[in-house]
C-alpha cells in the first residue's frame, strides 16, 4: 500500500512539475520571502519582522495553494482518470493520498528552504539562541506551512464537490475569509455577530498590523495550533463523508477507525479552543475600554489586616492558573466578619476556602469580598486558599510562552483596595496603581516552566523559590536572554542582543543618575543591579512613569512594545529614560491615592528635566510643556501652581537638582499634601534670595 | 470466466426510467447496440460497478456484483471519451495505472511491454499523450484496460471519432482481445459489432429488444429484405419500409423490408438490416 502511494506520489509530482506554472510560482513565492529576509537583515535590521510582516506572502501563498489544490483534482477530472481509478480497488483513495502527499512535500520543501535561508541570513547576526530559531520554525509551521496546507486541502475539497466554473467564485470567497486581512470583508459580519469572526477565520499572522512582541515572542500560542488542527480535522472529515457518499471508501472497520480518529481530533481541538486562552492579540484598547466602562466604585473600607506567608503554585499553560494559600492576621481591634482584597479582574476565582471549608465570596471588578463563616478576632490568624485563573491582557502574561507578573500588578491578593488601573489626566491615560506592601512578606513560589524564570526570591530547588519582599513579588520569563558584567546583570529579549551591546552606556548613565537623585532628594534606596530591559507598554500607553519600576535590586526598564531598539538605543533615549526613572525611584513606591497622579507626575517631570540638565543630557523632549498643556487637569489651584512653577523654572537656581525645593516638594507628595501647599512652597522659594550654591541663606 | 447473468436490472435517473427490467447473459464477446439514449452507457457503468442499479442482480458463478471490490479486480474499462494527462508519456500513463492496480514493479514493466505489443503501441511508449493521434490514444485506453489481464473487458463506444482506417484496425484489435476474455462493446455503430462480437443485445429506451447471436438476428429478417431499382418519382415509395437508398445511374437502388413472400428481389440480409428492422418494429409498436 505504501509503495503504491509512493509511486503515485512520484507520478503526481511529475505531473505538477511539468505544468511549469506551479514550479515558477513556487520559486517566485519562496524568492520573494527570501528577499524579504534579506531586506530585514541588510536594510532594516529586524529578524522577527521578516516573519511578522509577511502577510502578503501568506496571502499569495494561500491563493497559490488553493489553486494548486483545485488544479490537482481538476486535472484528473478533465481526463478519464477519475472513472478509471474508481474502478481500481483503492485506486481513487491512493490517488487522493498521493495528491495530499504532493501538497505536503511541496509545503515541506518550502519550509525547509525558508528555514535554512532564515538561519543562513540571520544566525549569528547577532541572534544565536536556539529557542528563538525554534520559535521561528514553529511560526513558519503554524502560520505559513499549515495555512498553505489547509488552503491546498480546501482547493481539493471545493474542486471535488463543485463542478464547472462555479468553483472559482466559491474559491475566492473562501480565500477572502481566511487570509490575514479578512477583516476587510468580515468587519460588518463581526458587528452583526458581535464576535470576531475575522480573527477566528484568519489562518495567517493573527496581528497583521502589529509589531513583533520581543518579550512574548511570536504569537505561536496554543490556541493557534488547536485552531489549525480543528480546520484540518473538519476538512478531512468532509473528505471522508464525501468518499463514503461516492462509495470510494466503504463503511467497515478501517473506515470507522479513521473516522473515529478524526472525530476525536475534531472534538479535542474544538474543546481546547473554546477554553479560556491567553492569546497575543492586537487589542491595545482592551484595558482602557474595560476601565472606561467599569468605573470601580469602592464600597468597602480599608481593613487592618495583614497578608503573609504566601504559598504560590503557578501553572502557566494556555492561560495563568494559580493556587495561592496565605495567612491573614486581624491587626485591628475589632473582629472581622468579611475580608476585602484587590485582585485583577481577569483572574477569576473558582475556589476559595479556609482550612478546607469553602467560603462565599464576591468578585466585583478588581475587588474580592470574602464572607467568613466565623469572625476573626483581633490578633487572630486564618489561612485562606484560593484557585484562580485567567489573564487575557497583552500587558501581563502567564502562559506557556511568557510570564510577566511584576510586583506592581495585583496578580496576588492584596490589601490595597484600589483597582489595578485608573484612567487619569485630561487625556484619560492608562495609569498602573501599584499594590501596597507595608511590611516584609514571606513568599514561597513553585512553577514548572520550560524557560528560565526570574523572580526577586531566592531559588531553593528546580522550580521552587522562597524569600521575603516588602515590595511585592515579580515573576518574569519569556523569550529572554541574560548577560552580566561586574556587578550588573541585565536581562533582555533575545532579538535585542545588538541593542544591549551598548549596556555600558546605560550603566554609566544610570550610575550618574542614581547618585544624583539619591543625593539631591536624600533618598535611601538600594541601587538596582539586575536590569530587565523589556517591552511592557501598550501602544495606548501615553503617560510618564508607567514603564520603569524598581523592586529591591531589580530594575524593570520598559519600552513600548512597538519599539525595535537599534544599536544606539541607550544613547538616543537617555533623555526619555530619565523621565521614566525618576518616578520609579520616587513616587511609584508610594502608597498613594488614585487621584494623586497629576500631583506626582508634575514633580517627576520637572525633576527629570532638571536632572537631565545637570547630567548634561541633551533633552529636547518638551515633556514638561506637553504635560502642562495637554494632560494636566487645569483648575484654579493648578493654574496658580503652574504659573508660580514657571516663574521658578525660569531661574538659574532651578537647574540645580540639589535645590531644596525639590526635596521639599517630594516630602509634600509623601505626606499627601495638596496643590495649595505646593503653591505656597514654590512661592516661598520664588520670593526669597538663594545663594549661588543653591543653599538657602537662612 | 463463467457466464455473467444480469437479472431484472432497473435504473431510474431524475425520475426517468433509464433501464427497465434488463435480463442478459454475457459470455464471450457481447455487442450492446442501440441508438443514443438507449441506456447502453448506464448499463455499462452498472456492470463496471461505477453505479448501482435500483434493483436486480448481476452475478457469475464465482462472483457476486455486490462485492464490488472483487468484481473490480476482474474488470478492465475503456470509457466512452477516453482522455489522459497530456504531459505524460504512454509508458508513464500505463505505469501509473498499473501501479494503482497493484501490479508489482517487476511485473509491471513486463506487463506494459506485452500490452503495448498487443495493442501495437510499442513504438510510441515514450511519446507524450498530447502527441498521439485519436486512434493511438484509443489504443492507450485499451492498453490501460487490459493491464493486469482482467477477465472482463468493457469498451464504451470504441470507434467514435476515429477515421475509417483506424476503425478497421481497432475492430481487429478488439476481436483479438476478445479471444481469451469476456468483452462487452457498447456502440451505436453496427459495423463495430459485426466483426467483433459473438452475441448481440439490442437496446432501445432502456429495454432489451433482442439478444442472440449474429445469425439469430439475421434470421429475424431473412427473406424480408428486398433490393429494387426505382425512379424517385414513383409514388409507391412512400408506402415502403426503406432501409437505404443509393444512386445508380439515372435510377436509385433502394433496400427495404417486405413481408411479401413473392418478391423476386429478396437479398441476403445484413446485421444493420436486422437492427433497423427491430427499431422500426419497436416504433410501430409504440405508435400502436
CATH superfamily of the largest domain in chain B: P-loop containing nucleotide triphosphate hydrolases
Question: What is the helix tally of chain A?
Answer: 22
Share of helix among residues of chain B?
25-40%
Which regions of chain B have little confidence, pLDDT < 50, spanning 5+ residues?
none
Number of strands of chain B: 12
| Number of structural domains of chain B | 2
Instruction: Give the amount of beta strand of chain B, in percent.
Output: 25-35%
- Give Rg of chain A in angstroms: 30 Å
Tell me, what is the CATH class of the largest domain in chain B? Alpha Beta
Average predicted local confidence, pLDDT of chain A: 88
What does this entry show, briefly?
The complex is a heterodimer of chains A (698) and B (288). By secondary structure, chain A is an alpha+beta fold.
Walk me through what this model shows.
The complex is a heterodimer of chains A (698) and B (288). Chain A has 698 residues and is an alpha+beta fold. Chain A folds into 3 domains: 2-165; 304-477, Immunoglobulin-like (Sandwich); 479-698. In chain A, 46% of the residues lie in helices and 19% in strands. Chain A has 22 helices and 22 strands. In chain A, the strands form 5 sheets. An 8-stranded mixed β-sheet of chain A has the order 5-4-8-2-1-13-16-15, with no helix packed on it. In chain A, strand 9 and strand 10 form a beta hairpin. The longest helix of chain A is centred in the N-terminal third of the chain and has 32 residues, at 91-122. Residues 694-698 of chain A have low confidence and may be disordered. Chain B folds into 2 domains: 4-216, Rossmann fold, CATH 3.40.50; 219-287, no CATH class. The mean pLDDT of chain B is 83. With 288 residues, chain B is an alpha/beta fold. Chain B has 9 helices and 12 strands. Chain B starts with a strand and ends with a helix. Chain B has a 6-stranded mixed β-sheet with strand order 5-6-7-3-8-9, sandwiched between helices. In chain B, helix 4 crosses helix 5 and helix 8 (214-221) packs across helix 9. In chain B, helix 6 links the parallel strand 6 (152-156) and strand 7. Classes of the chains: A alpha+beta (698), B alpha/beta (288). The interface between A and B is medium-sized, with 26 and 29 residues.
Amino acid at each position: 500500500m505504501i509503495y503504491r502511494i509512493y509511486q503515485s506520489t512520484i507520478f503526481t509530482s511529475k505531473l505538477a512539475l511539468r505544468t511549469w506554472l506551479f514550479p515558477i510560482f513556487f520559486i517566485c513565492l519562496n524568492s520573494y520571502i527570501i528577499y524579504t529576509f534579506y531586506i530585514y537583515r541588510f536594510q532594516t535590521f529586524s529578524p522577527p519582522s521578516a516573519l511578522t510582516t509577511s502577510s502578503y506572502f501568506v496571502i499569495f501563498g494561500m491563493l497559490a495553494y488553493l489553486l494548486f489544490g483545485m488544479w490537482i483534482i481538476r486535472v484528473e477530472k478533465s481526463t478519464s482518470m477519475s472513472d478509471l481509478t474508481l474502478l481500481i480497488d483503492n485506486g481513487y483513495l491512493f490517488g487522493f493520498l498521493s495528491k495530499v502527499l504532493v501538497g505536503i512535500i511541496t509545503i515541506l520543501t518550502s519550509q525547509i528552504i525558508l528555514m535554512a535561508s532564515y538561519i543562513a541570513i540571520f544566525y549569528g547576526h547577532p541572534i544565536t539562541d536556539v529557542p528563538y530559531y525554534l520559535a521561528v520554525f514553529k511560526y513558519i509551521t503554524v502560520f505559513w506551512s499549515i495555512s498553505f496546507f489547509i488552503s491546498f486541502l480546501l482547493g481539493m475539497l471545493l474542486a471535488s464537490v463543485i463542478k464547472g466554473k462555479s468553483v472559482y467564485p466559491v474559491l475566492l470567497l473562501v480565500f477572502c475569509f481566511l487570509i490575514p486581512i479578512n477583516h476587510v470583508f468580515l468587519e460588518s459580519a463581526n458587528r452583526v455577530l458581535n464576535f470576531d469572526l475575522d480573527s477566528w477565520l484568519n489562518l495567517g499572522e493573527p496581528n497583521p498590523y502589529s509589531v513583533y512582541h520581543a518579550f512574548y515572542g511570536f504569537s505561536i500560542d496554543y490556541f493557534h495550533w488547536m485552531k489549525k488542527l480543528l480546520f484540518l480535522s473538519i476538512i478531512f472529515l468532509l473528505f471522508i463523508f464525501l468518499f463514503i457518499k461516492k462509495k470510494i471508501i466503504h463503511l467497515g472497520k478501517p473506515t470507522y477507525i479513521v473516522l473515529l480518529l478524526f472525530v476525536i481530533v475534531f472534538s479535542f481541538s474544538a474543546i481546547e479552543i473554546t477554553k479560556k486562552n491567553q492569546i497575543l492579540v492586537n487589542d491595545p484598547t482592551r484595558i482602557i475600554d474595560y476601565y472606561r466602562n467599569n468605573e470601580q466604585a469602592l464600597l468597602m473600607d480599608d481593613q487592618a489586616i495583614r497578608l503573609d506567608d504566601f504559598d504560590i503554585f503557578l501553572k502557566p499553560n494556555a492561560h495563568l492558573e494559580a493556587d495561592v494559600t496565605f495567612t491573614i492576621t486581624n491587626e485591628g481591634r475589632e473582629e472581622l466578619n468579611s475580608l476585602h482584597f484587590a485582585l485583577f479582574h481577569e483572574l477569576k476565582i473558582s475556589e476559595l476556602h479556609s482550612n478546607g471549608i469553602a467560603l462565599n465570596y464576591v468578585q466585583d471588578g478588581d475587588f474580592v469580598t470574602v464572607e467568613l463563616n466565623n469572625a476573626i478576632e483581633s490578633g487572630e490568624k486564618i489561612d485562606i486558599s484560593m484557585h484562580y485563573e485567567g489573564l487575557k491582557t497583552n500587558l501581563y502574561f502567564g502562559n506557556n510562552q511568557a510570564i510577566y507578573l511584576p510586583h506592581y500588578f495585583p496578580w496576588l491578593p492584596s490589601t490595597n483596595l484600589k483597582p489595578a488601573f485608573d484612567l487619569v489626566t485630561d487625556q484619560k491615560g492608562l495609569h498602573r496603581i501599584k499594590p501596597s506592601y507595608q511590611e516584609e512578606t514571606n513568599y514561597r513560589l513553585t512553577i514548572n516552566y520550560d524557560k528560565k524564570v526570574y523572580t526577586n526570591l531566592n531559588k531553593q530547588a528546580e522550580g521552587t523559590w522562597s524569600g521575603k519582599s516588602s515590595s511585592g513579588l515579580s515573576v518574569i520569563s519569556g523569550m529572554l536572554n541574560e548577560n552580566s558584567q561586574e556587578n550588573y546583570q541585565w536581562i533582555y529579549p533575545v532579538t535585542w542582543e545588538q541593542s544591549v551591546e551598548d549596556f555600558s552606556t546605560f550603566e554609566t548613565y544610570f550610575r550618574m543618575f542614581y547618585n544624583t537623585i539619591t543625593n539631591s532628594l536624600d533618598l535611601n534606596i538600594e541601587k538596582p543591579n539586575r536590569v530587565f530591559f523589556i517591552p511592557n507598554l501598550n501602544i495606548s500607553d501615553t503617560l510618564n512613569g508607567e514603564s520603569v519600576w524598581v523592586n529591591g535590586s531589580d530594575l524593570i526598564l520598559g519600552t513600548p512594545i512597538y519599539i525595535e531598539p537599534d544599536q544606539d538605543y541607550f544613547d538616543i533615549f537617555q533623555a526619555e529614560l530619565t523621565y521614566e526613572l525618576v518616578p520609579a525611584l520616587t513616587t511609584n513606591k508610594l502608597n498613594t491615592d488614585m487621584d494623586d497622579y497629576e500631583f506626582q507626575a508634575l514633580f517627576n517631570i520637572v525633576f527629570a528635566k532638571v536632572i537631565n540638565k545637570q547630567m548634561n543630557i541633551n533633552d529636547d523632549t518638551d515633556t514638561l510643556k506637553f504635560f502642562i498643556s495637554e494632560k494636566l487637569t487645569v483648575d484654579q489651584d493648578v493654574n496658580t501652581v503652574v504659573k508660580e512653577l514657571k516663574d521658578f523654572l525660569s531661574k538659574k537656581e532651578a537647574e540645580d537638582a540639589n535645590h531644596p525645593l525639590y526635596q521639599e516638594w517630594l516630602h509634600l507628595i509623601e505626606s499627601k499634601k495638596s496643590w495649595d501647599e505646593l503653591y505656597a512652597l514654590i512661592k516661598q522659594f520664588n520670593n526669597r534670595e538663594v545663594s549661588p550654591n543653591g543653599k538657602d541663606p537662612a | 470466466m463463467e457466464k455473467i447473468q444480469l437479472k431484472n436490472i432497473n435504473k431510474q435517473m431524475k425520475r426517468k426510467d433509464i433501464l427497465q427490467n434488463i435480463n442478459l447473459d454475457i459470455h464471450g464477446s457481447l455487442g450492446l447496440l442501440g441508438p443514443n439514449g438507449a441506456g447502453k452507457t448506464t448499463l455499462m457503468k452498472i456492470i463496471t460497478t461505477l453505479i448501482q442499479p435500483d434493483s436486480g442482480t448481476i452475478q457469475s458463478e464465482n462472483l457476486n456484483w455486490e462485492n464490488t471490490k472483487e468484481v473490480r479486480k476482474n474488470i478492465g474499462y475503456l470509457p466512452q471519451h477516453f482522455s489522459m494527462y497530456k504531459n505524460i508519456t504512454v509508458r508513464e500513463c500505463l505505469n501509473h495505472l498499473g501501479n494503482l492496480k497493484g501490479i508489482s514493479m517487476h511485473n509491471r514493466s513486463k506487463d506494459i511491454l506485452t500490452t503495448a505489443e498487443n495493442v501495437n503501441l510499442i513504438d510510441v511508449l515514450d511519446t507524450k499523450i498530447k502527441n498521439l493521434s485519436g486512434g493511438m490514444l484509443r489504443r492507450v485506453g485499451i492498453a490501460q484496460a487490459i493491464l493486469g489481464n482482467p477477465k472482463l473487458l468493457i469498451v464504451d463506444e470504441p470507434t467514435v471519432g476515429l477515421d475509417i482506417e483506424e476503425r478497421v484496425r481497432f475492430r481487429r484489435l478488439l476481436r483479438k482481445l476478445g479471444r481469451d476474455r469476456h468483452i462487452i462493446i457498447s456502440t451505436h455503430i453496427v459495423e463495430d459489432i459485426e466483426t467483433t462480437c459473438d452475441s448481440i443485445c439490442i437496446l432501445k429506451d432502456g429495454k432489451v429488444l433482442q439478444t442472440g447471436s449474429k445469425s439469430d438476428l439475421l434470421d429475424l429478417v431473412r427473406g424480408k429484405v428486398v433490393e429494387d431499382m426505382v425512379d424517385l418519382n414513383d409514388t409507391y415509395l412512400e408506402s415502403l419500409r426503406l432501409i437505404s437508398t443509393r444512386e445508380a445511374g439515372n435510377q436509385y437502388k433502394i433496400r427495404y423490408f417486405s413481408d411479401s413472400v413473392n418478391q423476386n428481389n429478396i437479398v441476403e440480409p445484413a446485421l444493420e438490416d436486422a437492427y433497423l428492422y427491430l427499431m422500426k418494429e419497436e416504433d410501430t409498436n409504440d405508435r400502436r
